Amino acid sequence: MMKNEVQKMLIARIAQLCKEKGVSYYTLSYKATIPMTTLLHIMEGTTQNPGIFTIMKICDGLGVSMKEFFDTQEFEDAMKDCD
Questions:
Q1: What crossing angle do the helices spanning 36-44 and 52-62 adopt, rounded to 10°?
Q2: DSSP category for residue 47
Q3: CATH classification code of 3-82
Q4: Each residue of 22-45: pLDDT tens digit?
Q5: What is this structure's pTM?
Q6: Which residues are CB-contacts of 3 (< 8 A; sequence separation ≥ 6)?
Q7: What's the rounded mean pLDDT across residues 64-83?
Q8: What is the mean pLDDT of residues 59-67?
Q9: Residue ranges per domain, the chain?
Q10: Quick one: what percent of the chain has pLDDT higher than 90?
Q11: Which residues make Cβ contacts (< 8 Å) with residue 12, sequence separation at least 6?
Q12: Alpha helices of 1-72 — where are they, by DSSP H?
């Protein structure tokens, strides 16, 4: 699986969870204690490899565990491709 595809999956998952929870990117950046510019760079794809601590903060801001965040068929399939 290409790095670009995983990046798109991360962006889509953050957007999906924001929509499900009715959370704007501004609110997420506040709750996650990450700069709004950092979140926007992730969502625009200009940050190609957000760090694990940033992802953890985003999960915390969304009120989901890392397991819940990555518990999708797309991420499961991506992990199979890595084997």
A1: 100
A2: S
A3: 1.10.260.40
A4: 999 999 999 999 999 999 999 999
A5: 0.90
A6: 48, 49
A7: 85
A8: 97
A9: 3-82
A10: 73
A11: 74
A12: 3-21, 25-32, 36-44, 52-62, 66-70
